[in-house]
């Protein structure tokens, strides 16, 4: 069935590429060219930052020599104003639909990109062309707004780094744009800490709540480039580059981080706590109680990030000299860590090149080491349960702390 649908959508795309195609196919279907920001079509634009050296990390494995990553450049970080466009709040990646153009945020590698994903309205893609079903799913209309791009805002990391960093930049927009209402994903209202973080940067702006998966039609919209560059959606082109998927903008992220420190940790703090990140349930279950008991033998106290207020999270990571735990959004608090802090993260062997969290440590001059476990089931990369071996964990802690 999937193969048949792909063939049908490919045929629709071909028809739309012909001179009479737009008259034959309903307007809900649009054939678009995939571009990346900045793209032509905006009515006004500017830059927050010119191109500069990026924060670049490697996935450093405990017990192996430290590998210095090659330097890379972060593209210019800009803003643009668009008229009569559509944007979407989905879990995969943000995009802006303007006439016959589908604009993604800046990418680390050139396309073509693998952009077809369930429920994101993109039905078919080949090269730089894609077929979009504009009428699929929930829709809403607004007069004007500032769009916070990003993905999976049920995840603390993505709200912290994908979304709110853009709102921080919005506070430096020209005066006539700065007070426009901000489009906020409804998902964040499930989590008090996310709302607290929003209030830190919202200023006096009104809020327009975007339902998850909704497509928003805007008469006037501000698009802000992110302070991170990701390869999601992944590139479909061959590359001999290491499959690292992430870069951070140093100056922008430092200024963003400093707003949290001014609000919640303005005084000098000497790192002195050893913390182990724990979870109440979760998709990747493991022998947590046994691990917490082992960590306690080394002076680690359990911390449940989802139970902490925003102020408590900032201060906890500011006070931490050592951070131990499973890969996940709990490590987003490394945004607030200090130089010299050391983190040890255990991670699935199938995910050896993800530098999303190490980049936050590198931003602050902290260390971030990995050890790798093997899942004992295959329910997907982010759902498979596992068991950490006690002897292996103790040996890893001995190596790390020594």
Description:
26% of the residues lie in helices and 28% in strands. With 402 residues, the protein is of the alpha/beta class. Helix 3 runs parallel beside helix 5, helix 6 crosses helix 8 and helix 7 packs parallel to helix 10. The termini are far apart. The model has no long low-confidence stretch (mean pLDDT 91).
What average pLDDT do the residues reach? 91
The total domain count is 2
Radius of gyration: 22 Å
**Total beta strands:** 21
Count of helix runs: 10
| Structural class by secondary-structure content | alpha/beta
Unreliable stretches covering 5 or more consecutive residues:
none
Q: Termini separation (Å)?
A: 57 Å
Shape: globular
Tell me the fraction of residues in β-strands, as a range. Answer: 25-35%
How would you characterize the largest beta sheet? 11 strands, mixed
The amount of helix comes to 25-40%
Features:
single chain, 402 residues, alpha/beta, Rossmann fold, six-stranded parallel beta sheet, 10 helices, 21 strands, 26% helix
Task: Walk me through the topology.
Layout: H1 2-16, H2 21-24, E1 29-36, E2 44-49, E3 52-55, E4 60-61, E5 73-74, E6 77-88, E7 96-98, E8 101-104, E9 122-126, E10 129-133, E11 139-147, H3 156-170, H4 175-178, E12 182-185, H5 192-202, E13 207-210, E14 215-224, E15 228-230, E16 246-249, H6 250-264, E17 273-277, H7 288-297, E18 301-303, H8 310-319, E19 320-326, E20 342-348, H9 356-363, E21 367-373, H10 390-401
Parallel strand pairs: 1-8, 4-21, 11-12, 11-14, 12-13, 17-18, 17-19, 19-20, 20-21
Antiparallel strand pairs: 1-10, 2-6, 3-5, 3-16, 6-7, 6-14, 7-8, 9-10, 15-16
Helix pairs in contact: 3-5, 6-8, 7-10
